[in-house]
Design a protein that fits this description.
single chain; 19 strands; binds manganese (II) ion; 5-stranded mixed sheet; binds guanosine-5'-diphosphate; disordered C terminus; disordered N terminus; 16 helices
């Protein structure tokens, strides 16, 4: 029944809730505008790996070209690899707004490292996974380059369809793994891991073999896979991705790249890791929302959605799409809401110039509707709301929530409309002259 557009909106949000979405399709739009799960820079992930017995190259980090040059000299390596540090993949094929092509460069000359770093640091690097304008590079990694004789792909994901961790690997690594999954699905191998039993030797060995590691390399790769799995558990990761998980001509298995995402729910017991969070790549509005314990997701329409819970957010966006509208964003209040948060939420929503109307859709299970109503009233009064507002509050303390306070604030109060089908651009525009509330009883 759902229109393709509505299905798309739902997908965006589901991908968000289910990330990492490698096993399904990846959603570019959500990736560009939002971040789910803490993500660290490659150098931070590699430090965790090397502290836990996983093999990575020797490296230094630099935030100026001079430091990069110094680091290259200090490495005293046969060859050096210089890598721009941003929280997105595809850097190798990326382009800087300085004109430099490639966020990953190999050279034997430390002076070249200095020259290249000058064209990286302070400039934006655009890759397939960044917004069009790219992401500003503040740091570079200067590492000892190793020859690679074979590139494979390895990831460990917390996957809902497997009810736990799953190892995903492919002998065809180094490239965009989604393309391999689409063109050669038989080259993607999976091992479901029982989180209580842990990874079995036989599973690690089988994956090593499927990745094409032969002879003594098979044991070495299996050992690295087990160490990566132990790290995954220890740091409460939702994803560890190594692409390429490579092999050198000297017979070493090395993690050449690293991406680790962490479960935000584990922040309380992973303090050291969360302290490394570099928020400079976030949208400022996301940081502001996070300060008040709100989740903000930017989308590209004109109707702001103010909801509680990811499921209701999906349904709300689907309904908006179904009625020919487009959500500008959604702001998830979550549970245990305080009045001040509602006020802050409104402040954030109204600060977005794209927003032409606000839809509040709150199902009061844990949330108390009276608190929401008071928060909205205060926000309307103090922020001098200029755009039309449509409110649906339901369930807990609904009578108080609907009480005079709200009604008194509204000039065009109209309780006659019921049903979310009224939430269309047309209706919203019709009431654009005043603040308008309606309540919908879902019984
Ligand atoms: P990504 O493009 O953001 O995924 O960055 P990667 O760290 O994966 O680097 C991109 C590509 O550069 C890899 O797939 C490798 O082919 C190559 N590369 C990275 N590090 C080295 C290295 O130490 N030696 C060699 N020979 N190639 C490397
Ligand atoms: Mn990579």
């Amino acid at each position: 029944m759902a229109s393709p557009v509505a299905a798309h909106a739902g997908k965006l949000l589901r991908d968000l809730a289910l990330r990492p979405a490698f096993l399904s399709a990846r959603s570019q739009a959500v990736q560009l505008t939002s971040r789910r799960w803490l993500n660290l820079q490659e150098y931070q992930s590699k430090k965790l790996m090397s502290d836990n017995g996983v093999r990575v190259q020797r490296f230094f980090v630099a935030d100026t070209a001079d430091e990069a040059l110094e680091a290259a000299k200090r490495l005293n390596a046969k060859e050096i690899v210089l890598k721009a540090q941003i929280l997105a993949g595809g850097r190798g094929k990326g382009v800087f707004n300085s004109g430099l092509k490639g966020g990953v460069h190999l050279t034997k000359d430390p002076n070249v490292v200095g020259q290249l770093a000058k064209q990286m640091i302070g400039y934006n690097l655009a890759t397939k996974q960044t917004p069009k304008e790219g992401v500003k590079v503040n740091k570079v990694m200067v590492a000892e380059a190793l020859d690679i004789s074979r590139e494979t792909y390895l990831a460990i994901l917390m996957d809902r369809s497997c009810n736990g961790p799953v190892l995903v690997g492919s002998p065809q690594g180094g490239v965009d793994i989604e393309e391999v999954a689409a063109s050669n699905p038989e080259l993607i191998f999976k091992e479901q891991i029982d989180i209580f039993e842990g990874i079995k030797d036989s599973q690690a060995q089988r994956m090593a073999e499927n990745l094409g590691f032969l002879g003594p390399l098979k044991n070495q790769a299996a050992d690295q896979i087990k160490k990566l799995y132990n790290l995954f558990l220890k740091v409460d990761a939702t994803q560890v991705e190594v692409n390429p998980f490579g092999e050198t001509p000297e017979g070493q298995v090395v993690c050449f790249d690293a991406k680790i995402n962490f479960d935000d729910n584990a922040e309380f017991r992973q303090k050291d890791i969360f302290a490394m969070d570099d928020k400079s790549e976030n949208e400022p509005i996301e940081n502001e929302a996070a300060r008040y314990d709100l989740k903000y997701i930017g989308l590209d329409g004109n109707i702001a959605c103010f909801v509680n819970g990811a499921g209701l957010a999906m349904a709300t966006c689907d309904i908006i799409f179904l009625n020919g509208g487009k959500p500008a964003n959604f702001l998830d209040l979550g549970g245990g809401v305080k009045e001040a948060q509602v006020y802050q939420a409104f402040k954030l929503l109204t600060a977005d110039p794209k927003v032409e109307a606000i839809l509040v859709n709150i199902f009061g299970g844990i949330v108390n509707c009276a608190i929401i109503a008071n928060g909205i009233t205060k926000a309307c009064r103090e922020l001098e709301l200029k755009v039309p507002l449509v409110v649906r509050l339901e369930v807990t303390v609904i009578e108080q929530g609907r009480c005079m306070d709200l009604r008194q604030e509204t000039e065009n109060s109209n309780g006659n409309l019921t049903g979310l089908e009224h939430v269309t651009d047309q209706n919203v525009n019709k009431y654009a002259t005043g603040v308008f509330f309606f309540f919908f009883l879902c019984s």
